[in-house]
Design goal:
By secondary structure, the chain is mainly beta. It folds into two domains: about 160 residues, Immunoglobulin-like; about 170 residues, Sandwich (Immunoglobulin-like). About 5% of the residues lie in helices and about 30% in strands. It has two helices and 22 strands. β6 and β7 form a beta hairpin. The radius of gyration is 39 Å and the shape is rod-shaped.
């Protein structure tokens, strides 16, 4: 009868121990006698859980039963404490050889004045953190520079907390830790997410300011400079406005160029003689009373969406037309989106002309193109 009771007692003890381990280690199946489990609230967080990832930071969390000093950690394919350790992984295996203790992300105190806790006894599967202390409350030890294993098999961190200096010498010769316990870890394949965004651009020019997306009322941008009868005189500076709206998701933004329809000159020419422009492109000269010039100035309109439009330095302050550029192959840059995407923003372009007393009589014209170019 005595022997029977003894056997029953062992069976009850084994079953109770097994039930406790399942409760702590689920969902991973850990055989009986896996750990002493005196470290409470054990967990490990990783800065990156992808297989084979290098430079990963492991945040090792636990609550000891009392004050602790050194902490030893083995990373193995099994959770059994104080047993030999097999390195996780296949081709690119787990390694802690370059692990470093992170003072910023850990909460150990210095055991010796002016000495930070540090990692020692580094091997591919082992780290000992020395020179730190902590009371019996929630503890975090952060290790940087770890390489994850290249497979998705479960592996384990065996954690040993010592009351003072560690006497760990090998995975199967751990000395006398005050507390210990294991944590299951598993890497996963990265979730590859890809997408593409098509290149877009819309550009419109109207005599009236349009709404977002080049909507609203459109008015052909044909302007007549002069008085009510379309006549210029030397006593009046004549102006007229058009509005240009640019929308583009080009990475380096968009630029709008102004180009003369007359390749001989960038100003206004007599319709009967396109060879010269008696009302010349301002080309840095002041468009003012008593001078025969035409120019344009760019200022921000009232429509402002994402991003911003900015006048080129040649056109942001004074009325101007850079003659060599406006008659060139690509035109003269008049405004841009400051090297970034932009939408639902516009610029007001004000054309101005003046004449002097010897400007030849007749009808004048030019047709200026506004060309939007996106740099994707």
């Amino acid at each position: 009868m005595t022997k029977k009771r003894f056997l029953d007692s062992r069976v009850v003890s084994i079953l109770a121990s097994f039930g406790m381990l399942l409760g702590v280690a689920a969902p991973a199946a850990i055989p009986a006698f896996a750990s002493a489990d005196t470290l409470a609230s054990r967990s490990i967080e990783m800065s990156n859980g992808s297989v084979g990832k290098t430079g990963v930071e492991y945040f090792i969390n636990f609550t000891p039963s009392d004050d602790i000093g050194d902490v030893a950690i083995d990373f193995c394919t099994t959770p059994y404490l104080d047993t030999t350790c097999t390195r996780p992984g296949t081709t690119t295996q787990f390694t802690a050889l370059t692990a470093q203790y992170s003072v910023a992300d850990s909460n150990l105190s210095q055991a010796v004045a002016d000495t930070d806790p540090s990692t020692t006894a580094l091997t591919a599967t082992h780290v000992t953190v020395t020179g730190g202390t902590h009371d019996g409350t929630a503890t975090t030890i952060a290790l940087t520079g770890i390489t994850n294993s290249d497979d998705t098999n479960v592996f384990y961190a065996r954690i040993y907390a010592y009351s003072g200096t560690s006497d760990w010498t090998a995975a199967d010769d751990i000395g006398s830790p005050q507390d210990s316990g294991a944590v299951a870890i598993q890497n996963s394949n990265s979730v590859g997410v890809s997408a593409s965004v098509p290149e877009t651009m819309s550009f419109c020019v109207s005599k009236t300011e349009q709404t977002a997306g080049c909507g609203g009322t459109y008015t052909a941008p044909d302007i007549t400079l002069g008085n009510g009868n379309g006549v210029l005189d030397s006593s009046t500076l004549s102006t007229a406005d058009v509005y240009a709206q640019l929308n583009t998701n080009a990475v380096h933004g968009g630029t709008v160029y102004i180009k003369s329809g007359n390749t001989n000159c960038g100003g206004l020419s007599l319709v009967t003689n396109l060879a010269t422009c008696p009302i010349a492109a301002a080309d840095g000269n002041t468009v003012a009373l008593g001078a025969s010039y035409i120019g344009v100035k760019a200022v921000a309109g009232t429509l402002t969406g994402h991003g911003a439009l900015e006048a080129d330095s040649s056109y942001g302050t004074n009325y101007n037309l850079v003659n060599s550029e406006v008659i060139g192959a690509y035109g003269s840059p008049i405004f841009d989106s400051t090297n970034a995407p932009v939408d639902n923003s516009d610029m007001k372009l004000t054309f101005a002309a003046s004449i002097d007393g010897v400007t030849p009589a007749g009808s004048y014209s030019n047709s200026y193109s506004l060309i939007a170019v996106g740099t994707f």
